[in-house]
Amino acid sequence: MLAARAAKAGGFSCDIPADWLQGRTAFGGLSAALALQAASELEPDLPPLRSAQIAFIGPLSGEVTVTAIKLRRGRNAAFIQADVASEAGLGLRATFVFMAALPSALVHDAAPRAPVAPPPPDAKTFIGPDTSFIGNFEFYDHKDGLGPAEWRRWARLRERGGIDAFAELLAIGDALPPAALKLIDTRVPLSSLNWQINFIDSAPTTDDGWWLLSATAETARQGYSSQRMTMWNAAGDPIADAMQAVAIFG
Amino acid sequence: MLAARAAKAGGFSCDIPADWLQGRTAFGGLSAALALQAASELEPDLPPLRSAQIAFIGPLSGEVTVTAIKLRRGRNAAFIQADVASEAGLGLRATFVFMAALPSALVHDAAPRAPVAPPPPDAKTFIGPDTSFIGNFEFYDHKDGLGPAEWRRWARLRERGGIDAFAELLAIGDALPPAALKLIDTRVPLSSLNWQINFIDSAPTTDDGWWLLSATAETARQGYSSQRMTMWNAAGDPIADAMQAVAIFG
After folding, report:
1. Any idea what the Cα angle at residue B226 is, between residues B38 and B22, rounded to 5°?
2. Of the four, A250, B45, B147, B162, which is 20 to 30 A from A234 by CA?
3. Which residues of chain A are within 8 Å of residue B200 when distances are taken between CB atoms?
């Protein structure tokens, strides 16, 4: 996809492949990863990504233009904004915070480890249809002991060679359906409004491409749900904390 | 403060009063509330605020200019961006999502109620020095049964007449110190990098101005901490979920 892109001022343009669509719009994790690509190319010597704030402003499909601007780069932190736009207008705006690991006397880690082990090599995994973004992932679901609006699922990209770890994590991190979907008729349309994801580790790694995703909606009413999300690697280490606001149309 | 402001294209300019400073910069909750004010005035018929993503890009003091632009307004949701800038450049960028309560068959509420009751009328509360932003608040701290990097504190604005509920919640919602501060020497500088806050209720109310704040840092290392935050009203109902990324300089 990026191989066929065209350079533009401050970024590039490319086509959203049909197999990365989620309904009428590009899968949000893909659009976020494209935004990160433009941000990374704007300032090639950026420190690691530590946090991303993403607004899913409108639908994106067909040819998109991905551009980045520097908001501020100080001694430690760099704030880079990246947009993904199509003929229909601005679809995604991301504000990325990059920051090097700093010398610190403080080492605190009280985060829960992954509650379940990664899939065994012979696990029967789920691969979605090739006609949707879901077909780009392999999933291994856990259903036991969860709340009524909670998902817990191992996920990996089927093609992941040469992909930057943070781009991979953005693509994977948005791959669960909204947690509120578990409570309702699957034909009710839901739409993520935005997403913040904080990366706990400045150099995240895993084994065999597996990352564990968890999402929980504590509330869903008036067509609106706030959900909290967590990611772990195959060793069980916490990798990211996240949250989303979700609109429910029905 | 807003009484003395001057209209500008797309917003207004005003002076940050010295008693709203937090070190060398305006208190983040105040800057966020100013951004919301500009957003609300850009589109006077906006539905309720449901989520805010705020990037604390740089320091703000003295005269600031607050401007808003519409990113997209659809049938249900409106995305409005607002900036706060000073002579030193862009200090804060916020992306607000406004959305009306939608008819929905789904009513789910598994969120924990407030774990402690609001302060009694004769409670001995804490009011900070008038020379810092802390002097604008009244606090009532709970210390028992908390984790090593966890705060739990009732807070209210001392002057809160005529303030929009969401502006009040933005000002209050950033009033706790970073949770990681509890683990370290208080002379170590910490700085919130960003903030997402989701409003669970489309018409939040409380009694006597009190809102309960909770913040927990599960991890803090390499000069970086990700923290989760929650707000409740005096009746114990959940009002907001939030998270921040925090930089630790030492």
Report:
1. 50
2. B147
3. 219, 226
